[in-house]
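Marked as duplicate of an earlier ticket. Keeping the data here for the record.
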Amino acid sequence: MSHLFIYGTLRDHEVCEKVLGRHVSPDDLTEAYALDFATFKVADVSYPCLLPEAGGRAKGCLLTGLSERDLALLDKFEGANYTRVPIEIICDDKAQMAEYYQPNQKLQTDGAWDLATWQRDGKGDFLALDFNIEGVRAPAHA
């Protein structure tokens, strides 16, 4: 499957392009959301996780146009703590299937996560401390 629901730091164009090592066309990104999910900040790091939450509506984007190479790079970046799994999302007012990165174990969270707030307050820490193309830094509690 070459459709990925991105809900966190990969929604930031700079981060997405650093991971993929190429330009990402705006045509390959479409606003989407996942019902009954919410995005939470993972404790001790500057990135989020997507967790089930009754009545939730997690904002994200559908990233299309991904090659097998792209998916391999994304899998490496997400690291051993996340696995790509299917999810139903709403995109262009239609339900459709995609994949997303699900934590392999229960993670401690530290409140809701929002892209704009992260870009303003957390992106610098993420790039300096957590970002690694070989796998993001795992939280201390993982």
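See parent ticket for discussion. The domain at 4-130 is CATH 3.10.490.10 (Hypothetical upf0131 protein ytfp).
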